[in-house]
């Protein structure tokens, strides 16, 4: 009697375990969404600002399709290059690529370019809710129009730490009529031919060149735009209901312009930056630099029989581009009715006190998703930003080295220990103490290099970005620096040369956790991050022509822990040759 009972009992247990496992796997598959997208990148005719041109589009769209996922989901983009004569890669800006460093989409750093006709699979987890975007990261393909939005909602069952009734996504960019090829040749010619200021600022790929929607308000030399609403360049209008709260996600993928956004009669409450929550603060206007993203809350509590302007102006460079305009339309009135008052005037381009005051208001929210800053650091790297000459060519350099990327992606060459793929000498940790940042360089000559800052795995790294004078007397520019693969604590900004006494000014209490930080003219910016993501990561100025002229460095950490790099990611250059000769890798 005992034997059969025990057998059936065992069977029952096995059944229970099996049922439990099935339930578990169902529960997991419910939780982890999988988003598959088949994309083709191709040039196509488009009129981003009313002038027909050629843009780099995705599946016939400009900007590219918006990706929408939930935190913890897997995004899979199968990208086919339909450009006829050039390679392509796409970087997922703000996504840290934990465990998938080969999907970061940086040419020569994380992967080989995808050649015309080839397909590459980007498969990665979006681990955190927030406002992100994607863009080309080869040559100047961002300027060519290769970008789109990537929005991650909180995981199922989770809540945002603020409430809203509706949402808008604004992707900001700048646009030139001259082709990127023309621009690239100019930048790398002797003497350099600068690209100049953009012809138009775009909101969701839409701007107006040669006319203004607000021309009738007076002193504009431009004529009134004649828009039916069906044009590719018709403004993206925000339709709202009265007495609601809207979340406006704003991301900037400009090639050059630093921007300021203001909404007539309305205040905004800033709640998110680069995918991390902020201590909410109210503002009349918002500064946004290339590579940054924000969420603001807007309450529609104004006269609902009116519409209001949304204005976007240039910061940090004397603007020759008129502000971008669009309309906040209360559904209680017709969207085609222009606002009664003139558009809000954004701050003067060189009002840096205004920009600094804004930047200093940004503090991290005390939230479980944001780690507390490490109180100390293991290594401090000081990066001097200068403009230089090299045999008559104009370059940007870091500690007098202008970055020139190698043919073989670092991820493969470092992982497989190949010594001949890039310069093995260590790039400089700082610059001479007597260097005068307020004057143009005495010896302006620079060198090019492609060395790597090898970071101790799990070490805490401080970076002091030090701004300086450019080649021209009394000029120092804004540079927004973007770090791949990590967020950093933005410990603070200061004037002049960073010294030991500036140490006490660093915010170790509630620094914002971000992936992009600006350096102001003649100032410094201090960052801290933990090198906890095995891979090779670009850290560079997000102004595309500046990066093109060498303004970046390369960090690597824990590369020996990177497992299973897909062969197609590194089948080029020296690693490609190794595959061809059948040599064993890793
Ligand atoms: Cu720059």
Structure description:
Residues 1-27 form the signal peptide. It catalyses: 4 L-ascorbate + O2 = 4 monodehydro-L-ascorbate radical + 2 H2O. Dimer. This is L-ascorbate oxidase. The protein is mainly beta. Helices cover 11% and strands 35% of the residues. The chain contains six helices and 34 strands. The termini are far apart. It binds copper (II) ion. Copper (II) ion is lined by residues 479, 541, 543, 546, 551.
Give a quick rundown of the structure.
With 586 residues, this protein is mainly β. The chain contains six helices and 34 strands. The strands form eight sheets. It has a six-stranded mixed sheet with strand order 10-9-14-19-16-17, with no helix packed on it.
Features:
single chain, 586 residues, mainly beta, six-stranded mixed β-sheet, 6 helices, 34 strands, 11% helix, disordered N terminus, binds copper (II) ion
Class by alpha and beta content: mainly beta
- Going across the biggest sheet, name each strand in turn: 10-9-14-19-16-17
Name the hetero compounds present. Answer: copper (II) ion
Give the CA-based shape: globular
Distance between the termini: 59 Å
Q: Estimate percent helicity.
A: 10-25%
Number of helices: 6
Reported for the largest beta sheet, the result is: 6 strands, mixed
Query: What Rg, in angstroms, do the CA atoms define?
Result: 25 Å
Mean pLDDT across the residues is 93
What share of residues are in beta strands?
35-45%
Number of DSSP E strands:
34
Low-confidence stretches: 1-6, 16-30
Domain Plastocyanin-like: 41-153, 170-331, 443-559
InterPro entries: Cu-oxidase-like_N (IPR011707), Cu-oxidase_2nd (IPR001117), Cu-oxidase_C (IPR011706), Cu-oxidase_fam (IPR045087), Cu_oxidase_CS (IPR033138), Cu_oxidase_Cu_BS (IPR002355), Cupredoxin (IPR008972), CuRO_3_AAO (IPR034267)
Subcellular location: Secreted
Cofactor: Cu cation
């Amino acid at each position: 009697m005992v034997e059969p009972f025990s057998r059936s009992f065992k069977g029952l247990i096995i059944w229970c375990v099996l049922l439990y496992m099935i339930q578990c796997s169902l529960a997991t598959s419910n939780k982890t969404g999988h988003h598959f997208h088949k994309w083709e990148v191709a040039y196509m005719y488009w009129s981003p600002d009313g002038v027909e041109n050629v843009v780099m589009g995705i599946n016939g769209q400009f900007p590219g399709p918006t990706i929408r996922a939930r935190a913890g989901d897997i995004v899979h983009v199968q990208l086919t290059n339909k450009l006829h004569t050039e390679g392509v890669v796409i970087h997922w800006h703000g996504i840290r690529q934990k465990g998938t460093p080969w999907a970061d989409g940086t040419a020569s750093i994380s992967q080989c370019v995808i050649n015309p006709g080839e397909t590459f699979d980007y498969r990665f987890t979006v681990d955190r809710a927030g406002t992100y975007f994607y863009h080309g990261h080869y040559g100047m393909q961002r300027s060519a129009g290769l970008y789109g939005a990537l929005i991650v909602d909180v995981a199922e069952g989770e809540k945002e730490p603020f409430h809203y009734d509706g949402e808008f996504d604004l992707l900001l960019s700048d646009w030139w009529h001259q082709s990127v090829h023309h621009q690239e040749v100019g930048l790398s010619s002797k003497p350099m031919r600068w690209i100049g200021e953009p012809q138009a600022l775009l909101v969701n790929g839409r701007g107006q060149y040669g006319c203004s929607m607000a021309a009738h308000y007076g002193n504009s030399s431009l004529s009134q735009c004649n828009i039916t609403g069906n044009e590719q360049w018709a403004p993206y209008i925000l339709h709202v209901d009265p007495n609601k709260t809207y979340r406006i996600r704003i991301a900037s993928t400009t090639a050059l312009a630093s921007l300021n956004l203001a909404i007539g009669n309305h205040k905004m409450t800033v709640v998110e930056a680069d995918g991390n929550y902020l201590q909410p603060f109210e503002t009349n206007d918002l500064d946004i630099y290339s590579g940054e993203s924000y969420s603001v809350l807007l309450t529609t509590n104004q006269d609902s029989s009116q519409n209001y302007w949304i204005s976007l102006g240039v910061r940090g460079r004397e603007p020759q581009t008129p502000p971008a305009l669009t309309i906040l339309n209360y559904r209680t009135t017709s969207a085609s009715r222009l606002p009664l008052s003139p558009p809000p005037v954004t701050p003067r381009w060189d009002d840096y006190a205004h920009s600094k005051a804004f930047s200093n208001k940004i503090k991290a929210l005390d939230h479980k998703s944001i780690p507390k800053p490490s109180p100390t650091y293991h290594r401090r790297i000081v990066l001097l930003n200068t403009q230089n000459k090299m045999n008559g060519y104009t370059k940007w350099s870091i500690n007098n080295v202008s970055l020139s990327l190698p043919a073989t992606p670092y991820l493969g060459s470092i992982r497989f220990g190949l010594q001949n793929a890039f310069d093995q000498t260590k790039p400089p940790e700082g610059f001479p103490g007597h260097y005068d940042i307020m004057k143009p360089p005495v010896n302006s000559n620079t060198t090019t290099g492609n060395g790597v800052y090898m970071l101790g795995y799990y070490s805490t790294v401080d970076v002091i970005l030090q701004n300086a004078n450019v080649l021209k007397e009394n000029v120092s520019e804004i540079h927004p620096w973007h770090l791949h693969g990590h967020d950093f604590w933005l410990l603070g900004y200061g004037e002049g040369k960073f010294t030991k006494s500036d140490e006490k000014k660093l915010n170790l209490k509630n620094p914002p956790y971000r992936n992009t930080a600006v350096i102001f003219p003649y100032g410094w910016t201090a960052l801290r991050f933990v090198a906890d993501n095995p891979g090779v990561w670009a850290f560079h100025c997000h102004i595309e022509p500046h990066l093109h002229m060498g303004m970046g460095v390369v960090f690597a950490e824990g590369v020996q822990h990177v497992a299973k790099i897909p062969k197609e990611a590194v089948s080029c250059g020296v690693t490609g040759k190794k595959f061809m000769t059948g040599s064993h890798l890793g």
